[in-house]
Amino acid sequence: MSAPSGKPDTFGGRLALEESWRARVRATKLWFEYAASQAAQAAGTPAAERAQALELTAREDYMRALQIFADLVVRGKPPEDETVE
Predict the structure, then answer these.
(1) Position 66 in a domain
(2) Within-domain flag for 52
(3) pLDDT in tens, the chain (85 residues)
(4) Measuring CA to CA, which of 22, 26, 42, 52 is 20 to 30 A from 63?
């Protein structure tokens, strides 16, 4: 599913874009928290390296979504060509 991109034409369009990214931030935060808990549980096991890699990827996705959302809400800067997966 694609997020609305470009500059919103209307106030309603801006709100829809913000809500889309708010949902993305929530989803990526939940994924990161899950991945972090799995990495903690896997510590010291053969699966630890894979769990840590998954946690790192989830953290990067969360931080990217958070930065885009902050730019949109605080600075009024819409994402250039980002998608919501």
Answers:
(1) yes
(2) yes
(3) 444 444 556 778 889 999 999 999 999 999 999 999 999 999 999 999 999 999 999 999 999 999 999 999 999 998 986 554 4
(4) 42
